[in-house]
Structure formats: structure tokens, C-alpha cells
Amino acid sequence: MTQDAAARRGARMRHGGPHDGSTSTQGASASSVGTTLCYVTARGQQVRVAVRPGSGARTPLVMCCGIGASLEVLQPLVDALPADIEVIRFDVPGVGGSPTGPLPYRFGQLMSAKTSS
């Protein structure tokens, strides 16, 4: 998700880790060239997001792993997609780089947090 897209959705994006002030966002954990790792906060829940930019001419593709799998699991699928498609992946709360949120949560609540405005 681009900074502009996050702003339109009312989410706050920041780079680095969930509790540190680091600004390094690119690295081996989301290995597509140009992929940016950041954290998005929506409805008080912080999640780790990987964004591979596209051409902007096509609708971005949002990918979500099953609960218990981190966004890196989707890397082979991202690599197989055309480079002009923006791909947005995220770790659900408590998985990968996303801190644990208030428990218990249901899938509907999780999706609501990702699409809130």
C-alpha cells in the first residue's frame, strides 16, 4: 500500500519495526526487487505490510496468508506475477512481524481492521 493509499484509508504507515525508530524497510524478508516493508496501524492494530510497486495502471492485488503463516510464504506467488501489478501482502496480528493484537479476534474483525477508513 502506498503512503497515499494508506492516507485515503485512514491508516497510518511507518517504516521500521513495530517498537523501534528504524527506517530501513528493504531487505531479505520480502525479496522482490523494490519491495518495501512497513507497518500500518488501523483501528489501533499494527500490522507488517510488504508492498511491491507496480505501474499504477492496474488494480493492486492484496494477498493475505492463512493465520499462522507470514507474508514471506507468498513470495513465490509474487515473483510469478507480472511486474506491473502492485502487490500488497500483510502479516496478520501475532504472526511474522506483526505484534499480537487484542485476543481473541475473528476473521471478520481482522478484515475490518484492514479496510477501515
CATH fold-level name:
Rossmann fold
How many whole angstroms does the radius of gyration measure?
13 Å
Which CATH C-level class is it?
Alpha Beta
Could you tell me the number of beta strands? 5
What's the average pLDDT? Answer: 74
Shape: elongated
Q: Report the CATH superfamily.
A: Alpha/Beta hydrolase fold, catalytic domain
Largest sheet: 5 strands, mixed
Uncertain regions spanning at least 5 consecutive residues: 1-28
The total of helices stands at 3
Second-tier CATH architecture: 3-Layer(aba) Sandwich
Strand content: 15-25%
How much helix is in the residues?
10-25%
Helix and strand content put the structural class at alpha+beta
Number of domains: 1
Helix-strand pattern: HEEEEHEH
What is the terminal separation in angstroms? 14 Å
Structure in words:
The chain has a single domain (3-115), classed as Rossmann fold. 18% of the residues lie in helices and 22% in strands. It contains 3 helices and 5 strands, in the order H-E-E-E-E-H-E-H. A 5-stranded mixed β-sheet has the order 1-2-3-5-4. Strand 4, helix 2 and strand 5 (87-90) form a beta-alpha-beta unit. The chain is elongated. The two termini are 14 Å apart.
Compose a concise summary of this entry.
This protein has 117 residues and is of the alpha+beta class.
SSE topology:
Blueprint: H1 3-8, E1 12-14, E2 36-42, E3 45-52, E4 61-64, H2 75-80, E5 87-90, H3 107-115
Parallel strand pairs: 4-5
Antiparallel strand pairs: 1-2, 2-3, 3-5
Keywords summarizing the entry:
117 residues; alpha+beta; Rossmann fold; five-stranded mixed sheet; disordered N terminus
